[in-house]
Input
Amino acid sequence: MKSVKIENVSKQFGQVYGVKNLNLDIKAGEFFTFLGPSGCGKTTTLRMIAGFYYPTNGHILFDEQDVTRLPPNKRNIGMVFQNYALFPHMTVDENIAFGLQVRKFSKAEIQHKVDRIRGQVHLATYGKRKINELSGGQQQRVALARALVIEPDILLLDEPLSNLDAKLREETRVEIKRIQSELGITTIYVTHDQMEAMAMSDRIMVMENGDIKQIGTPQEIYHRPINRFVANFIGETNLIEGTIEAIDGEDIQVITTNGLIFIGRKQQSSPTFTHMIGDKVFISIRPESIHLGAGDNTLTGKITFVEFTGISVNYIVDFTAFSLKVMIIHSYDQIKSIGEDITINVAYDSLYFLGE
Ligand code: ATP
Output
C-alpha cells in the first residue's frame, strides 16, 4: 500500500476545467472518498491517478515517487468501474486470472493466487461458474477480486455499486469495506451517494465544480460543514436565514426575517464564519436534532406534511417565513396530522451557524 499526493493538479479539456489546482494527501491504507454532484471532477481526478489522463499542470506522487506521466500499466493499481467490464462467457476464475496471465505468472502461481482471493471475496466455490450465471452482487465481487489479485498498491473504485439495487448495494458496501480493512489497501472511492461515502470512508473530499469544498472524516463533514453546499449535500438539513442581533459571551442570538429568535453557541459555527452583530447568517438544523415539546428555542408551527417510515415520524412544519423538516425517531407518541399545530424545540448546542 502506498500514499497518494496530488500537488497543484489541474486538468483542462479545451477551455473547460475538469479540476482546478487540486492539492490532496491520501495516507497509505486509507479509505478515501471523492464525493460530489455530477460533473464536479471526481472521475477526472481518479483517471489522473490511474494514468488514463495526464494532468495539464501539477504532479501526482505515489509515496514519494513522481508518477505524473507514468502509463497506467506501470502504476500497479487495481480498478473497479460501474459496469464491471467482466468477460461474460468466461468463468469466474478465468476472469480473475486475466491480469496475472498478462503479467506472465506460472499456471501454479495463478491458481494459488486466484483461489486465495476468491475466498477473500466469499466466492470460494464459484470458480467454474460463468459470469452470466451470477447475480449482480456476485459479479461485482468478481470484479473486485480481479482488481485485487494483482496485489495493487492502490485500489480505485468508480461508482462500483450504482448498478446494484438498494439492498444489494448495502450488502456489497459492507463487503467492500470488510475486504479493504482486512487487506489494509489504500483505496480511493468515487461516489455521488453521501450515505455510501459516510458509511465507508476514513475521510471524504467534497467537491463542487472542479474544486475541493471540504476534506474531513464523515463526522467532521456531517457535524461541522464548512458552508451551505456541504451542509446541504451531506444529509438533510434545514437552513434558516437570519441576522445576528446580539452576542453574549458564547451565545449568539439570531433574528429571522419574520422576527423569530434563535439562540446558539459561538463554537457551533463554520470556521469561516466571523460572528459580528448585523452579519447575515444561515442557521443549519438537522431534522433529527429537533424534539417535540418546549425546551431551548421553542417554536410552534403548522404541520404541512407527515410520513411514518418505521424508524421515524417525519414532519414538515410551517413557520411562515420558513419551514422545518422534523424527524422524530422511535416515537411511540400519537402521530399528528396535517393542519395541526405542533410545538418543537432545538437545543442551543444543536444549532450550527454558516456564513454566506
Ligand atoms: P459524474 O458523477 O457525472 O461522473 P464527475 O464528478 O465524475 O461526474 P467528471 O467526469 O470528472 O465529473 O467531469 C468534470 C468536468 O469535466 C465536467 O464539466 C465534464 O463535462 C468535463 N469533462 C470530463 N471529461 C471530459 C472530456 N473528455 N472532454 C471534455 N470535458 C470533459
Helices lie at 42-50, 92-102, 107-120, 136-148, 166-183, 194-200, 218-223, 228-233. The chain has eight helices and 20 strands. The CA atoms of residues 123 and 138 lie 8 Å apart. Residues 13, 16, 18, 36, 38-44, 192 surround adenosine-5'-triphosphate (CB under 6 Å).
